[in-house]
């Protein structure tokens, strides 16, 4: 429960420290006195977003600190998961700096707003006037059913499964689209691939073919020069072999006289041997040089095929054609194997869907079980609040659609009068009826949860007289097992509180500030008398106030 709230430099508040007790606490004050500021500060410390507009003095930081007694609410595991120090008397602090930056701390450990919001759902339910208008919102209605049905863990599992399902389905859709696009190109790609495969290309083939063709096309010139080279080698008078033989003979005669002559003679001998080898190869080359028109035509056709393929695919080498062939092979393979891949992905989607369906069914069954009890409880409470003929029609239908909280379609209808037609709450219920319905819902929720604190911001809007007495009784009943803080304008409700606080404005050094104080017994009588009869308090108003308090 909330034990204290400290506010510094927030809106119209310079500095304010409030201690709260268990039971039913009442907060009253004139319109515009600053009651909403208190809720704003409390919302801030519990994770609401803020900016520098909340600062009273824009050159100083705003600090809001809340102390909460959480010893009875089994939150140790939450603190462990969030890596926070658990304290039975937990302190939450929020700071808004003049720069606009925000910092939050739980027991002096820095935390994110997400952690604060998660902690808030386990500590305090702040009912605002705006929340009453959410009664017709299906998300709120589902939250009500799920809270009573204890669906929290099942819903978390469902949401994880839904994320997995959506991801798997997205992958499947992408694969199907990819196959559809690939199918449109499949025949053409297969034709290109087969054409390249039939060509049986080799990476260095083009250069070798061009060389062979060049040789055949110049066979006469090659034959002429080879013949002349052979004549120069073997001529008896001036041939290279004859000349080298003579040179070798000359040097061999002087080789014994000096080492340098011996080396020269040896080199000439080696040259002679090399020339003999060259001569043999020249003879062979000359014998093999012959014009073959069929071979020339075959080489030319092969080269032309390669040139045509390169031109067709806008490349300039066989290596590029081979790379293209590999790419086409992959595209063709994707299409040919796509059916199997799609089937595997579809099976994956189906497997997740089966688990989701099972979870959705369990969630739906749990909701259905609590509907009769919820209907009876709400109608019973509303009967006590002067709506004896109020009826609810709550129906759940399991659909084929995966919603974010299951597969149920919910019809949550209301009829205020006997024989009246059922309709949406916002269309058939008045403002005062909506307030009573919301109070009834909060009472039912409080009986089925371990929430430490609930705060009502003028939930009594639109009611008066005996109904306000009954609403006060319900709040008092709720306060027997949880802390209830109520902001109200009704004296009947104010008189039911275990403690009473007043919000008021006062002038301080040419500025208006909001203050709050806990009222003594006498001050409380005066406050309720003012609520009954206005500023000019009559004796009858004072007497009535005492009667209400007693």
Automatic annotation (TrEMBL):
Pinpoint the RecF/RecN/SMC N-terminal domain residues.
2-510
- Which CDD domains does the UniProt record give? ABC_RecN
Say yes or no: keyword Membrane present: no
Superkingdom per UniProt: Bacteria
DNA repair listed as a keyword: yes
Q: Which InterPro entries match?
A: DNA_recomb/repair_RecN, P-loop_NTPase, RecF/RecN/SMC_N
- List keywords of the entry alphabetically: ATP-binding, Coiled coil, DNA damage, DNA repair, Nucleotide-binding
Entry coiled-coil feature ranges? 155-229, 261-288, 321-369
Q: What does this protein do?
A: May be involved in recombinational repair of damaged DNA.
UniProt record similarity statement? Belongs to the RecN family.
From the Swiss-Prot or TrEMBL record, give the protein name.
DNA repair protein RecN
Identify the species of origin: Pseudotenacibaculum haliotis
Species lineage: Bacteria, Pseudomonadati, Bacteroidota, Flavobacteriia, Flavobacteriales
**Gene designation:** recN
